[in-house]
Amino acid sequence: MLASEPLFGYSPTHVLMAAGGAAIFVAYLLPRVLFNRAAPSAAIMMLLGMFSFAFLPGMPQVLDPTTSPRLWELGSEVAVIVVLFATGLRIDQVGGWKRWRPTVRLLVIAMPLTIAALALLGWAFAGMTFAGAMLLGAVLSPTDPVLAGDVQVGPPLEGQEHPVRFTLTAEAGLNDGLAFPFVHLGVILATLGANPADWFVDWFLRDLVYRIAVGAAGGALVGWALGHALFSRWGNVAIEKSGPGVLVLGAVFLCYGAVELAEGYGFIGVFTAGLVLRRIQEKHHFHKRLHAFSEAVEHTITAALLFALGSILPALWPVLDWWHTLIGFGLLAVIRPMIGWISLTRSGLTGGDRMIVGFFGVRGIGSIYYLAYASGKVELVNEQQLWALVAYTIFASSLLHGATSFIVERYASPWREATIGN
User: Fold this and answer.
1) Predicted confidence band of residue 324 (pLDDT cuts 50, 70, 90)
2) Exposure pattern of 391-415 as b/e (b: 16+ CB <10 Å)?
3) What is the 3-class SS of 64-83, one letter each residue?
4) Into how many domains does the chain fold?
């Protein structure tokens, strides 16, 4: 040790590791001790991140997403693709049109209306540019498969998937990818302007039609190939002698990379791959191991992201004004519940179940990815406002939906009455 070096030095990296580890431990343990459930964990994690960076001496500088969007993009990207693959895996029964009808109505009706409503509010009341308002709608439109686990279907092979849980699961599995065309539209508006003659045909054919189709078809093909490889005679021998970790990450990265290289939407691809892979051997016990590892990876990355997101909240709060706050709260309490409820008319769900599905439009990690992705593509005039509003909405959603997740179990109509067909 050098003579000038202090005996006890505080490395910012080690302080961060200690604070982050303590935050994760407390956030995941405390709700289970106090409430016997894990509902508020996400909100607690963000709060602990905020307080750690505000009050603990020796913490490193906050990682500003407006100057380092690529790091936020990569972290959230990995979290989302792993959980989307796991979401496809855990659906026990695909069923037929009647089972998917509520999900389709949410994707085709509720999602575009939500984007339009948020864009209009951002442009008319929050002073955003047209491109910034479109990005706001696209970024906050998808529901989140990462933070909504408590209201979705359970792990593989549990069965008895209530239509409310199935609808929320399938919606979250698909709408992360389906938001991408509108994120691209926001980027196009920021670079090419608002005249549709300059970009509409190209956007419609490439970003809306081609990339969705390639994402779905490519993911299905990869899932089919992986399923037949894993559950072949030699594959069965291999998986019985190995852990699922490398297989899960290999499958996720292979599918996502292949679909993206083909210019498709990888988010759609990994969900479809998990869904199709599960169909090859629906009852195989290995699905539980695949899902368990995927969930562990997802929780680890998500905890780090939420802790980091909490750290930037104090820097972003000054950017928010009343209109931003009302937009975020209005999305969670008015826009999504109302549009969701209306879009589910004649879907086969009861009135009460429609209200529950409409209310649980959880926002989360997918919104971080989309905003970081857009920030890396174009210089955004409203970038700080967008980050502040997205961070506030995720925090409010984790608090509101986490504290009320018991509603699905307690108030959803009995399964045999709510069943909408297979």
Assistant:
1) confident
2) bbbbbbbbbbbbeebebbeeebbee
3) CCCCCHHHHHHHHHHHHHHH
4) 2
The pTM for the full model equals 0.90
> What mean pLDDT value characterizes the chain?
86
Identify the CATH number of the domain in which residue 160 sits: 1.20.1530.20
Looking at the fold, whether 261 and 372 belong to one and the same domain comes out as yes
Whether residue 421 has pLDDT greater than 60: no
- How far apart are alpha carbons 146 and 144 in whole angstroms? 5
Instruction: Copy the structure tokens of residue 137.
Output: 């709608």
Which residue is it, tokens 């971080």?
Answer: 368
Record the tokens describing residue 3, joined without a space.
Answer: 């003579």
Residue written as token pair 């990690």: 365
Cα dihedral 380, 382, 385, 387, rounded to 10, equals: -10
Distance of alpha carbon 108 from alpha carbon 350, whole angstroms: 20
User: pLDDT tier at 9 (50, 70, 90 boundaries)?
Assistant: low
Lowest mean pLDDT among 2-16, 186-200, 285-299, 380-394: 2-16
SS3 of 156-210: the string is CCCCCCCHHHHHHHHHHHHHHHHCHHHHHHHHHHHHHCCCHHHCHHHHHHHHHHH
Say yes or no: 131 and 226 in one domain. yes
- The answer to whether residues 69 and 372 touch, using CB atoms and an 8 Å cutoff, is yes
| Six-digit token string for 421 | 């067909």
**DSSP SS3 for 278:** helix
Domain membership flag for residue 2: no
